[in-house]
Amino acid sequence: MHRPEDVTMLVEEYRALLGDEESPSSEFLEGALARGGDWTPRAARHLRELVINYGSFMLRNALAISLALQTEDGELQF
Question: What confidence tens digit (pLDDT) does each residue in 32-54 have?
């Protein structure tokens, strides 16, 4: 059963995709997301900016709120 609040498998997928990079360059991160993660270049850039600007504390809370409100796709329609 798929539980959207359980992101364990998703975290493991991104760890495998990004390898041992602790502080990947913008180009590396966006390229890996676009090639291996099937994101568009625009979405990959936006994801990188979210990670850099907000970090896991803020994004974890945003995830919890979006799940509570059952908001899967936001206004930007990624």
Answer: 999 998 899 999 999 999 999 99
